[in-house]
Design a protein that fits this description.
Length: 408
């Protein structure tokens, strides 16, 4: 107990700690102390009488409300221009995501809209979407570039992501996704595009401090495993961690590739095979499941959850919020969909949006309720942790705490 005073003591809390050895790490009739931006103490309220502790400036009785770590959305494309409701309509009339992409729609149509938007316009639209995620308990967000696809437009997107973190007072981790698709002006010059991204944009944007991790879309409509490898070699030389959109529409061996580079995560994974699972398990690469994209594309091939579970691969869940395949603005709903569509247990799904999501972003200071962790909390109007996955929609969040302060 290092703090000389506690700023806040929360009592009457059902603490889903994801740290204790109980389902959900649950502590009933719990208490949680905050000093500065950190959690100073966590335990049963009755234990407080048996330990020496500083007095608290303020004590708040939560009346039995559930408290979880602040939620962490570890895969989003939150910054973009326009929307793609027309493609939604086209898919409902029978067109596939791949057909639309090959006909110049898909990612490229959002690239056009994103290039046309100013930094302030992108900030305003992304901010509205981010606020929806925050209203459902999020306190940490990952945001990818990948809709600019020129050096200036990728820089613009990453700057917006950084500004969003400042404006909303939350942590935003950025991922550079220059290899999202080949932009139209390079269509006949793939090799030149790859060289541009790997040899010029990546080092320049890294130098500007705009990149926390490097991502790519490894897929038959995007980039091959060999092209992705070249990017990962450059990223590794710059000391940047890598992650990958892997095995979403087909098996390209992407998960094994990102694992070979000690990657943070392989994301999507519907077409993942046994070799990919083993590679991820030995590298400690997190599997990020994205049920929003599965749902919106009316996908039928399920990610191999049983195999991942059996191999001990940590499972995270994220919204993949993007205008094409997952216009999803609730991480809690993503967790619920991971249960209903992918058969995760509510505990697995909730670990997937807290402790395992933190791991996918290599953030060791959050994702559980434990002394020394950042005091990022969500206080809910429900008592059972599983209710967070069970209710579809509705306003369940009562309070959000970020870095030890009430944030909403
Ligand atoms: O994660 N798979 C690639 N990227 C996005 C989709 C982007 C888009 O269609 O605009 C995804 O699903
Ligand atoms: Fe994505």
């Amino acid at each position: 107990m290092n703090a000389t005073r506690w700023d806040v003591l929360l009592t009457g809390a059902r603490l889903a700690t994801f740290a204790e050895d109980a389902p959900f790490g649950l502590i009933d009739d719990g208490a949680l102390a905050i000093a500065g931006d950190r959690i100073a103490w966590v335990g049963r309220r009755t234990e407080l009488d048996t330990v020496d502790h500083p007095s608290a400036v303020e004590t708040i009785d939560l009346g039995g409300a559930l408290v979880t770590p602040g939620l962490i959305d570890c895969h989003t494309h939150l910054v973009f221009g326009g929307q793609r409701a027309r493609e939604f309509d086209m898919r409902l009339h029978g067109a596939s995501y791949e057909t639309i992409a090959r006909a110049g729609g898909g990612i490229v149509s959002t690239v056009t809209a994103t290039r046309a938007a100013s930094e302030d316009e992108l900030l305003a639209s992304a901010s509205a979407r981010a606020r929806a995620l925050l209203a459902d308990g999020v306190t940490t967000l990952e945001i990818k570039s990948g809709y600019g696809l020129t050096l200036d437009d990728e820089r613009k997107m990453l700057r917006v992501a950084r500004r969003l973190g400042e404006e909303l007072g939350i942590t935003v981790r950025t991922s550079f996704l220059g290899l999202h698709t080949v932009p139209p002006e390079f269509r006949e010059r793939r090799a030149a595009y790859l060289a541009e991204v790997c040899d010029h944009w990546l080092p320049a944007l890294a130098e500007a401090g705009l990149i926390d991790a490097v991502d790519a879309f490894c897929e038959r409509i995007a980039f091959t495993a060999e092209e992705t490898r070249r990017l990962f070699e450059r990223a590794t030389a710059l000391n940047l961690p890598v992650k990958l959109h892997a095995e979403q529409l087909s098996d390209q061996g992407g998960a094994a590739l990102v694992a070979e580079f000690g990657g943070l995560s392989a994301d999507h994974l519907e077409h993942l095979d046994e070799a990919g699972i083993e590679a991820m398990a030995s590298a400690g690469t997190v599997a990020v499941l994205l049920p929003g994209a599965f749902y919106a594309l009316r996908e039928t091939k399920l990610p191999p959850v049983d195999g991942l579970r059996a191999a001990g691969v940590p499972l995270a869940v994220a919204t993949d919020c993007n205008p094409g395949t997952s216009p999803l603005l609730s991480l809690r709903l993503a967790a619920g969909m991971a249960c209903t569509l992918f058969r995760l247990t509510p505990e697995e799904a909730l670990r997937g949006i807290t402790v395992h999501a933190a791991r996918a972003l290599r953030l060791v200071d959050r994702g559980t309720l434990a002394a020394g962790q950042r005091a990022d909390l969500a206080v809910w109007n429900v008592r059972e942790p599983a209710e967070l996955c069970y209710w579809i929609g509705g306003t369940l969040l009562r309070q959000r705490w970020v870095g030890g302060r009430r944030a909403g």
